[in-house]
Each structure stands twice: as C-alpha cells, then as structure tokens.
Design goal:
D-Maltodextrin-Binding Protein, domain 2, single chain, nine-stranded mixed β-sheet, 2 domains, 9 strands
Amino acid sequence: MTLLAGAAHAEYPERTITMVVPFAAGGPTDTVARLVAESMSKDLGQQVIVENVGGAGGTLGAGRVATSDPDGYTLLLHHIGMATSATLYRNLAYDTLNAFDYVGLVTEVPMTIVARKDLEPTDLKGLIDYVKANADKVTVANAGIGAASHLCGMLFMSAIETPLVTVPYKGTGPAMTDLLGGQVDIMCDQTTNTTKQIQGGTIKAYAVTSPARLDIFPDLPTAAEGGLKDFQVGIWHGVYAPKGTPKETVDKLSASLKKALKDENVAARFKELGTAPSPEADATPEALKAKLESEIARWKPIIEAAGQYAD
C-alpha cells in the first residue's frame, strides 16, 4: 500500500492547477501571479492557470481557497492583505493563520507616493505641508478596503498624524484612471502599478517606500529621505494551499516556486516593475508563515488606531 500511495503521489500534478488571485485581472498582484504561474507550469509539466476571484478586499478569493479540496490543485497567491484582513474584517469566513498551508514568499513590491501631475508641491516635505494645510480638501484614492493602496494610505495618514478624505474605488484601474484625470489628488500604490505612469510623466512621484532608492527611479528619494523617517512598507506576496495539503505536494510546489523565481524572464519582468524575486531562503513554507505572523502583529495596532473596519 505504501508503495502504491507513493507511486500515485509521485505523479502529482496530473491535471491543471488553479492559482486564485483574489483581485481583478490586470492589477499588480495579477501581474505577479501570471509571471509565476507561467514559469511554474513549465517546471511542473501541467498548466497553472490564474483565476481572478475579486471582492471584499481579497477575502472572497482567500475564502474560496480555504474551503477547496487540499489536493494541491487549488492555490492562492495573495499579498499583504492576507495579514491585514485578519484585523480589517470582523467576520472573516476563515481563520487566517490556520486555514492554509504555506508554499513560500514570491516578491516584495515597493510602494510609491504619487499625485496628479499638476499638484502644486514639488517634493515630499512640501506635499506633507500641503496636505496638512488642506486636510479637509485633499483626496486620497485607493483600490478599496484591504487593497495595497488602502493600507499604504492609512500608514501615510498615521505617519503625518493627519486624517485625509479617502476615496475608495473598485480596483486599482479606476483609481489610477481618476488620478490621471485629476479627479483625485494623491495615492500610494505599488511600483507594479505606477512605474509606467511615473516614467511617462502622467503622474507626479514624490517618494518610494523602500529602504533605498530603486534602480528604475534613481532620482526619486525614499520616504525617509523626504522626511518620513520610519515610513517603510512593501507589498509582499505569498503562495498558499488549503490546510491539509499533503506535505509532499507542498514541498513540490515550493521547489517549483523557487525555480520560477530563478527564471531569467521572471526576474527581468519583475525588474521592469520595480521589484525582484524573493531570495531562495524566503520561498519556503517556514518563511511565509513567519512573515504572515509578524505582519498581522505589525498592522493590527495601525488598523485599530485608524478605526477603518469592514464587515
């Protein structure tokens, strides 16, 4: 029986694997997922398809995977919202830390503080002074509660100790469209969503949220250089499987993820988007679990202080 079971398991995967992205197609997380899925497909010998299950700040897609069969054929690629939703949502349909098995970290995408191109301030210090003086008028766009832009916006308001008028959208696309059109003033979003607009001069960039300047934006200062000393945030992404997935399957998926992150095409495309693949030591179940636990603890007091919850 043991030999038969081992032989059967050795054939995994025998069919298409679905990687659920809990956000709309075309967004930053979807872009990351499709690059990784394409490379993993080559390694595993079966197609890894991306399915977009958006809604409720990513919790609908995560909930879908949490209740799927733990057979390795339904995966989740989620970002930092996996950690923040544990506090943001009062009635989650799943237990964040105990409903999943962990495959590994994928990448950590820096954020950019950007604005409509005709906003008056020319640097981050000037922007902070401006929004503080016009707090009742300045609008901050985000892609909805739980989105990366929502989280970074909350952190920005916390850092400058000034509440601003937030304008939630149903996705990154419409939020960026209104920023480009001048209907909203500022936004804090991932480089995967802002790089082309910054390079094209269609929006104004004030800072990156990484510890050091980015190669693609050598002249763009860090938030710390601009006066926000401890303002560092990256939108990390990880791959999960439903709780109870066989360890051998999780290990095979983790090994495939490591290979994908070494793929030259993946690395090159990530670089174009202002990010880089996670190092091999982070593309492990243990590293992702530790990251999720630490991020839940980090964001809980920030979310509670902001008082921005969702049902």
